[in-house]
Design a protein that fits this description.
2 domains; 10 helices; mainly alpha; two-stranded antiparallel sheet; binds iron/sulfur cluster
Length: 184
């Protein structure tokens, strides 16, 4: 049973507001439509392999249990959108989870594997950079070894890094420009 002091009544609205960048948009407001049927959990590929339960995260958000921001579970969602497609109440589950993650990241709680993905974006312009295998594969089907992507364009990389600095994204993930990795 959850103790009363662990419930943050304003937290539900905080999630809704954080996920509603355009006035009048109700994407994350769908949170309040959840009737806890569990279809999302039953559909979730991550839940099959881990203790992550989508319905539980939505329930915590609905009840204003802000400790969900400290939970490892919110980082186990692969954003596959299966729950989003299958929810009988049209709850925008994946958007809600992403909104909760954004709030958690602002608190300094971003999971390390996600930070590492962001490191690749700052280092190479992509979460999954091209490598030697990519080059070989492209060559084998008659394509240029290097695709016309940000990774191979200094101008694009400069723009990505400028945007990251202006938005303080580098600070958010704890990026070290000297080592081009995470700060130790
Ligand atoms: Fe709530 Fe939709 Fe998940 Fe059912 S499938 S528990 S209504 S979010
Ligand atoms: Fe599970 Fe996330 Fe996919 Fe929903 S979007 S089914 S929570 S992995």
């Amino acid at each position: 049973m959850m103790k009363a002091e662990e419930l943050n009544k304003g937290f539900v609205n905080e999630i809704i507001e954080a996920g509603t960048p355009v006035p009048g948009e109700k994407e994350v407001a769908s949170l309040k439509s959840c009737y806890q049927c569990g279809t999302c959990t039953g559909s979730c590929p991550s839940g099959r392999r881990t203790a992550y339960r989508t319905r539980k995260v939505i329930r915590q958000a609905l009840l204003g249990i802000d400790s969900v921001l400290d939970s490892d579970d919110i980082w186990k969602c692969t954003t596959c959108y299966t729950c989003y497609e299958r929810c009988p109440r049209d709850v925008k589950v994946t958007e809600i989870i992403k909104t909760i993650r954004n709030l958690a990241a602002k608190k300094g709680n971003m999971a390390t594997p996600h930070k590492m993905t962001a490191v690749y974006v700052l280092k190479a312009g992509h979460a999954v950079p091209a490598n030697d295998d990519t080059a070989k594969l492209r060559k084998s089907i008659g394509l240029a070894e290097k695709a016309p992507i940000a990774q191979f364009s200094q101008k694009d990389m400069d723009e990505i890094r400028t945007i990251a600095k202006n938005l303080k994204f580098d600070e958010l993930i704890g990026f070290d420009w000297k080592t081009m990795g995470l700060k130790q």
